[in-house]
Amino acid sequence: MSLLDILLTFLSLATCLRLLFYRRGKSAFKASYSFVAYLFIVSYGALGLALLTGIYNSLQLNNLLIVLLILLSFLLFYWQGNVARLIKLQWRIL
């Protein structure tokens, strides 16, 4: 297990837990955002467990995928697990 494997495992599982413990507060519930958050939770959790158990390693992952995982994890931690802000980011850039 390389250092990149350990980093990606920790990052994937930490992002999964961050999304699991997100508190909505006074925001309105939207099913579409919740579904996207669910997909993130399942994919990050599955990747973290696959890296932890040795099913995958960082050499089998595409470099672009690794960069995307790190970027999405950073953004989700920056916005405290709020997937709606991540989706609305597209309109802020354009």
Record the SSE blueprint.
Elements (H helix, E strand, L loop, with lengths): L2 H18 L10 H23 L9 H16 L4 H11 L1
Helix pairs in contact: 1-2, 1-3
Parts with pLDDT < 50 across at least 5 consecutive residues: none
Number of helices: 4
Q: For the report, how would you describe the main beta sheet?
A: none
Q: Supply the helix-strand structural class.
A: mainly alpha
What does this structure look like?
- There is one protein chain.
- With 94 residues, the protein is mainly α.
- The protein has one domain (3-18, 29-93).
- 72% of the residues lie in helices and 0% in strands.
- The chain has helices spanning 3-20, 31-53, 63-78, 83-93.
- α1 runs antiparallel to α2 and α1 (3-20) runs parallel beside α3.
- The protein is elongated.
- The N and C termini lie far apart (40 Å).
- 19% of the residues are buried.
- The mean pLDDT is 89.
